[in-house]
């Protein structure tokens, strides 16, 4: 049985939400204390980095021409990343960067294969928490702590998303913070005389009014199981108790068969009448298209959708709201969040020094602000302010009521993942083949194969 290391899980449980809150929404003393160590304009650093040699770092003019390949799961961000990397290339004329995105659902397998030998990336976008552990355990990544100076800009809690469970070392520079909100079409709401719901009763009234007007209230479907745990966390996080439940389940004081957790799953079943017809056949992209085409009024999703709304729904006036707490919730309404991932260096890269330089730059304020402005997501780099109004609105929601996306932050450290069990379970509910109790019990049976409470 796999046991998650005590220091990693305890640190996450104690300070996760506060660390993300400070990163997403406020200036950070931590970042200002490392000004002398962060990257210079040429992509190097004044600290001890991987491109230093025994007889001193080579002058920029002596650096050999190299081509770096960066892999990602964000196909929708290809143009933005190319524009960002063009700035780095201008500062580092010996470096050319090829950004290669893969389909999100294929990426884990593609990356695991690509890192095994030649032809893979020099720098890779890495999943967070348990998602990166197989790559670390296989020796496919280079440890960055002590080598990449800009890691000093991040709190330990943020770095835990890229930390090896067994060795405690850091293998990636965090790039983004995600939150879960309810997106809504302000134009449709105005046409129907509706306001953002602040209570569950108001939320149901909005759903009923939209349905009566012939508008699909919630765009989300169930065709892609990976998206359903996000929907569950958004709709049911408060219903199971949010951070208080998280602390209790990690301590072994309760488990996923807890009645409140069962009821949080029941929330999704209760709201199925307000989702598209035959929701099980509606894919993630179908759901986004329904919302972008103004055929549905709301979409439950992550802050990573902001860039998509900007590019694919430019004429839709999109707002964001905190989903109210369902009746019986032990917690007030919350805005769940998590460290989305990091960028790491392949152990098989032939250009590790230059790859380290690039990753070091990706931990600086310069890259972080470009990430916020061009990718339209919240950066993990401290002290940055979103200029996009919708993203700033989401950051405010998170600042007011942060909580952890439990099944992702804590229950991906073994097989099966908690998120996988939830996604497949909700699909069974949509098919009429399982109840909320069945799904909760299956999640508990699955994670107890590897998870030991930190009691």
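^ structure tokens above, recovered residues below v
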């Amino acid at each position: 049985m796999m046991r998650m290391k005590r220091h990693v899980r305890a640190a996450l449980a104690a300070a996760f939400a506060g660390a993300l809150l400070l990163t997403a929404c406020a200036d950070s003393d931590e970042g200002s204390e490392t000004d002398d160590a962060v990257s210079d304009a040429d992509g190097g650093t004044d600290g001890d980095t991987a491109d230093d040699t025994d007889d001193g770092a080579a002058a920029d003019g002596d650096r050999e021409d190299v081509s770096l390949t960066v892999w990602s799961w964000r196909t929708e961000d290809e143009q933005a990343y190319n524009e960002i990397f063009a700035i780095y290339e201008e500062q580092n004329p010996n470096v050319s960067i090829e950004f290669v995105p893969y389909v999100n659902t294929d990426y884990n397998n593609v990356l695991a294969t690509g890192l095994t030998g030649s032809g893979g990336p020099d720098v890779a976008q890495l999943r967070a928490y348990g998602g990166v552990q197989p790559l670390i355990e296989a020796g496919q990544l280079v440890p960055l702590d002590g080598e990449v100076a800009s890691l000093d800009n991040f709190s330990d809690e943020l770095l835990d998303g890229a930390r090896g469970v067994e060795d405690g070392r850091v293998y990636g520079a965090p790039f983004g913070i995600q939150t879960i909100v309810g997106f809504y079409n302000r134009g449709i709401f105005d046409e129907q005389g509706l306001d953002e719901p602040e209570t569950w009763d108001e939320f149901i009234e909005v759903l009923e009014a939209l349905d009566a007007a012939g508008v699909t209230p919630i765009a989300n479907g169930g065709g892609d199981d990976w998206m359903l745990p996000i929907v569950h966390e958004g709709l049911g996080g408060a219903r199971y108790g949010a951070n208080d439940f998280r602390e209790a389940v990690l301590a072994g004081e309760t488990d996923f068969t807890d009645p409140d957790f069962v009821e949080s799953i029941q929330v999704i079943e209760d709201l199925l009448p307000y989702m598209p017809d035959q929701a099980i056949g509606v894919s993630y992209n179908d759901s986004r298209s329904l919302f972008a085409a103004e055929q549905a009024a709301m979409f439950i999703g992550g802050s990573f959708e902001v860039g998509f709304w900007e590019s694919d729904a430019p004429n839709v006036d999109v707002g964001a709201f905190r989903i109210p707490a369902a009746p019986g919730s032990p917690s007030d309404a919350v805005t769940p969040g998590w460290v989305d991932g990091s960028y790491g260096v392949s152990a098989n890269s032939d250009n590790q020094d230059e790859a380290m330089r690039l990753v070091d730059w990706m931990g600086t304020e310069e890259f972080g602000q470009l990430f916020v402005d061009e990718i339209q997501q919240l950066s993990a780099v401290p002290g940055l302010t979103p200029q996009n109004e919708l993203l700033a609105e989401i950051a405010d929601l998170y600042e007011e009521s942060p909580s952890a996306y439990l099944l992702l932050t804590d229950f991906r450290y073994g097989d099966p993942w908690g998120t996988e069990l939830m996604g497949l379970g909700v699909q069974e509910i949509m098919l009429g083949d399982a109840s909320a109790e069945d799904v909760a019990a299956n999640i508990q049976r699955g994670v107890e194969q590897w998870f030991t409470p930190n009691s």
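The chain has two domains: 6-178+340-396, 180-337+398-447.
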